[in-house]
């Protein structure tokens, strides 16, 4: 088996507000391998978003390691951590967070530009991603001119435009109706598989989760293999 694209080790996350202490992660471990699609399930408040944000190097947990490219990203200075995140990690949110004043092509090209690409290269990469997701005819449309499913496919294209090795998605279909949810999941799955990226997808939709290569669940702050309830 190939080496993990992402290794999470002993991840702990404690929130403290106004004298209250809430521990949502208690030593979570997870390996994510290139080319696989993994579902992450668990009840609301179980720590799925906390795990994903730490894995994406978007926030620092209380303790633990997030190993990307053989390096614990959490131990790096902010600048180096940001560089790894931009180069190696794509993140898809439940709400698309597209910039309303930019059209689809500009929204998707932006991360490529931030990573250092020239305007022409960034636009070409963005166009290719959008066309692969069936949005070739919507390149000049702003988010307000797109349907919810189209907006989320633009967000997927944006997450993949820098060719990340790791794709993390936090309830990417949670804001969509069932039919659109299936379409967006199919688009995300196909895009990740075509790119050979390792993907971890948090979802409340068990039917979608079971279509992935494997499913893990957060139980009492730990990652476990998923087992459906029996009667």
Automatic annotation (TrEMBL):
PROSITE patterns (alphabetical): ABC_TRANSPORTER_1, ABC_TRANSPORTER_2
SUPFAM superfamilies: P-loop containing nucleoside triphosphate hydrolases
Gene Ontology, cellular component aspect: membrane protein complex; plasma membrane
GO MF annotations in UniProt: ATP binding; ATP hydrolysis activity; transmembrane transporter activity
Gene3D superfamilies per record: P-loop containing nucleotide triphosphate hydrolases
GO biological process: lipoprotein localization to outer membrane; protein localization to outer membrane
Any Pfam family: ABC_tran
ABC transporter domain location: 6-231
Keyword tags: ATP-binding, Cell inner membrane, Cell membrane, Membrane, Nucleotide-binding, Transport
Family under the similarity heading: Belongs to the ABC transporter superfamily. Macrolide exporter (TC 3.A.1.122) family.
Name of protein: ABC transporter ATP-binding protein
Organismal lineage: Bacteria, Pseudomonadati, Pseudomonadota, Alphaproteobacteria, Maricaulales
